[in-house]
Amino acid sequence: MLKALENISAFYANPTRxxxxxxxxxxxxxxxxxxxxxxxxxxxxxxxxxxxxGDSVRIMFVHVPAAWMSLFGYSFIFIAxxxxxxxxxxxxxxxxxxxxxxxxxxxxxxxxxGSLWGQPMWGTWWVWDARLTSVLVLFFIYLGYIxxxxxxxxxxxxxxxxSILAIVGFINVPIVKFSVDWWNTLHQPASVSxxxxxxxxxxxxxxxxxxxxxxxxxxxxLTLTRxxxxxxxxxxxxxAPKGEPPHV
Amino acid sequence: MAETQNLFSNLQHSRDAVCRADGLACARxxxxxxxxxxxxxxxxQALCLRGANGSGKSSLLRQLAGLxxxxxxTLTHPDPAYGTHYLGHADGLKAALTIAETLAFDAALAGYRxxxxxxxxxxxxxxxxGCDWQFVGDLSAGQKRRLTLARLIMDPRPLWLLxxxxxxxxxxxxxxVTDLAExxxxxxxxxxxxxxxTLDFADEEVLLEPRR
Amino acid sequence: MxxxxxxxxxxxxxxxxxxxxxxxxxxxxxFLFIAITLLPxxxxxxxxxxxxxxxGLLWVVLAISLLTGLERLxxxxxxxxxxxxxxxxxxxxxxxxxxxxxxxxxxxVLPLILAVPLAGLLLNIExxxxxxxxxxxxxxxxxxxxxxxxxxxxxxxVRRGGLLTVLIAMPFYVPVLIFGAAxxxxxxxxxxxxxxxxxxxxALSAASLLLAPFAIAAALRSALR
Lengths: 248, 212, 225
Prior knowledge:
heterotrimer, A: mainly alpha, 0% strand, C: mainly alpha, globular
């Protein structure tokens, strides 16, 4: 099984083969993403309003999957970076770079929806809730990662620096999570965190899982499209006459 | 002055040392700078790298110093941590230090400490006055270049990699480089230098062909 | 002194020497006091309030003063070719990195920490409470330098990479600030054990010591290619 996976990965290490595969996959993937999300939103529309929170509970179906995706995105970047750095898989850097803005947007979405959801509950747009705070720090980790890619002119050098940051940052994420949780319980009684544990009645659970699946496929579709773009950009750069790199 | 000369001038490098490249290639991103570069250098030999701007002379030197991994090919050379001096475009000098302090740092990186007289001797040999009070930041480009030569004298290493060693030097400075290089080769050292000029001490040349 | 020790000491002392001579030490300490002086203008001069906020404020100001000094940690050596040389010494490059960090710590961070009692007095912390705050800073500051060094090394090839360094290093500072400020606050109250906080801070420093030199060395090697 592992061997088979290795063979597949080695086969698609060639960017041309990857591009051929991506051309076939990307339309069905986008169709699937839109389909699952549409179905998920349809289910969310028929979720009964919460007896306490009313209709604002529906924000949860965007907020929670977005928070999942923010962590998934960073794990994805980490795995891609390890693949690139240790196994020297040429598509690893491409995948990591492509996924970063996607993950960052999901993280921002989690922050904005968290704030919107919290407003009726807390009466304020921002609370230093443990979960929101961790997600905010994660957002800064994303920003640093993206900024590093942009700041270093030479692509191979930028790729190496970014993968080192991805790996070190990944170790940092659980430490931040742990210390922010601890800090939060130190300063506030734990009763506020309704955000962290919504009542997971089956009426809520299935739409939530469907939305989660939809976000996951959307993440993959966006990342795949950005990977195709990145490979094309690299080809353009390699073909440019010496001394005049194209502005891309 | 005689003392410091004696300290190192009779040092013999191993006659078995070689520096060899086989089918060496260099890539910058997706662009190949050069490929298929091969040469072999034995103890007491010097090589001059030639080629147009951008043909990869500096990159080849950095590969030889172990600073830049080769994209393809094999490289046999002395362990850079012990056996290589690399004098690149960036001189590694600190403007806020005096000449003597700079030389003391050079000595420390070679693993020893000498007294101020020894530093003054070396500075005099390089044609630099005011060893204990002159700040490196006040030196001219040629004087700085001379000061970097101190490393070659103070830390005997078999392989010298020199990037444009004659840049900014006057006639006396050039003669100094040539003298140092010839003494080094006599002691069984090896030199690879990138230069657009004729180097008297180099007996062989490698031309890096521009691609396309 | 053996040759390797001498190399380590030379790299460390040269870094200290240059920081001192170029006025970096004085600038960093002045920055700390300027920040402390600005705080009452923003928060009001009420001593009770300042005292209550002091441990957290001092930690944040210390971290920011440290962040401002990080940019030059490796950049000058990167630009003038010294790092090329330091890769070609018999010492392992990770040890070279440690020597630079130690030099940075002694030249810049230690003076900042020594300035904290005075700054603490300006914020009305009682003198008897200061030792706890200082102990917390001594335990936690190595982590700040080591983790900040990761940011500095990743941004080393970027001109004017100061803000980038700060952006990269900031998420790493969160745990140290949380536990450092908690220790400082615990020191203000009687009967609260500070030991566990100091332990966590020391553990964060130890973990950074195991991780950071390798990450920094890898980042610098990559930038030098």
